[in-house]
Design brief:
Length: 383
């Protein structure tokens, strides 16, 4: 592949990535997950530019300049895979790795090893080298960047597929499937590029996967809550209607409604940004508590959340709520929140007397407010 062909192949993906980035600034809300997606887009653009420069300037610049361009190219390539992994992990867990130093160190280890190998290439000639004719050549460790990138992408795919197997919401299941499918583009492109040296197929494959991921984000904006990433009220209504119609299922299931206690005081004392973070904190706690179940999680609106849960009796529901409260405490500690969140909860079982969605919602809501009133009475000073 000559330099002109390489540029012609990579310019269209670069333009598309630029359009996606600008569109994301205009269309997507300013949430951490969207910032991570923008990092993936920018890393792809950086890799495309560095790759084109490497081909165009090959044999035309001093060795030092060629080394610098190729080092940047590899670092951007690794940045794509690493930031994609962080993006997928944040979507499924609802919290940043910054809250967990040990997990962050483990997650960074492959990229750190990869970066060291690439940065040392001008002296070790391990990953690549520039020959006497000022041309790029692969080194004996050229597999290291591809292996590190594949590790992150495959880990993200495994994470998405695992959580998809536990998810019942159609919107979340569809989004997790799109996240898992991201691996197809770069892995197929990488296999072709390894088999056909000189052909650039990895970056176009990555760009295609980024486009598909972005399209899924745009589509799911209609079905998911923008602040928490959980299913929204419309998705909850659809899910309840479907469950109520599915009379063939003999599994007992219930609707749990949760409400943050004293949420107004968090907003009044710490500001609305803290209030938003409190809602994300509860969403993260719900994801953590129900990670090993097929529970349907949704934000109903305001500070009210809902869980549709297959459970065995009242004791099973109580244990699940104990898990939520424990996860909420743990999440608050990792986020170093200046407030302690608690929730009131009520639930209603689907059955002959509660067979329609509106009946379940009314009964669960009534039970939740009874629990909230009881919590207030317990908080009163005893005489």
């Amino acid at each position: 592949m000559n330099a002109i062909t390489y540029v012609l192949v990579d310019v269209p993906p670069f333009i598309v990535m630029g359009i996606l980035y600008v569109n994301s600034l205009v269309r997507l809300p300013y949430l951490r997950e969207n910032s991570l997606l923008r990092t993936v887009i920018l890393s792809t653009m950086g890799a495309l530019v560095a790759g084109m420069l490497s081909w165009v300037l090959d044999g035309r610049l001093p060795a030092e300049a060629l080394y610098a361009v190729n080092v940047l190219h590899f670092l951007f390539m690794g940045g794509i895979a690493f930031s994609w992994f962080l993006y997928v992990r944040y979507l499924v867990h609802g919290e940043s790795l910054l809250c967990k130093p040990l997990a962050l160190a483990i997650a960074c280890a492959p990229y750190a090893a990869f970066a060291v190998a690439v940065l040392c290439a001008p002296w070790t000639h391990g990953v690549f080298y520039v020959d006497e004719g000022l041309a790029y050549r692969r080194g004996p460790l050229s597999f290291v960047p591809f292996a590190a990138g594949a590790l992150y992408v495959l880990a993200a795919t495994a994470l998405a597929l695992f959580y998809r197997s536990k998810e019942e919401g159609p919107a979340r299941r569809r989004r997790l499937l799109y996240l898992a499918a991201f691996a197809v583009g770069p892995l197929v492109g990488g296999a072709l590029q390894a088999a056909l040296p000189g052909m650039d197929t990895v970056l176009p494959g990555i760009a295609l996967s980024v486009v598909l991921a972005y399209v899924s984000v745009q589509r799911d904006e209609l079905a998911l809550d923008g602040l928490t990433g959980l299913n929204n009220r419309g998705s909850l209504d659809d899910h309840l209607a479907a469950r109520c119609r599915a009379t063939r299922s003999s599994r007992p299931w219930c609707l749990i409604v949760l409400d943050v206690n004293d949420f107004k005081s968090v907003n009044d004392r710490y500001g609305h940004a803290a209030g938003d973070d409190a809602l994300r904190q509860l969403a993260a706690a719900l994801k953590r508590a129900f990670a090993k179940t097929s529970a349907f999680l949704a934000r109903m609106g305001g500070d009210e959340f809902a869980v549709v849960l297959d459970a065995r009796g009242e004791e099973g529901v109580r244990r699940a709520l104990d898990d939520v409260r424990a996860a909420l405490e743990t999440t608050g500690q990792t986020r170093r929140a200046p407030y302690a969140l608690s929730v009131s909860a009520g639930w209603a079982w689907h059955g002959a007397d509660l067979e329609r969605p509106e009946q379940l919602l009314e009964a669960a809501d009534k039970a939740m407010y009874a629990d909230k009133q009881l919590s207030k009475e317990r908080a009163l000073p005893q005489r």
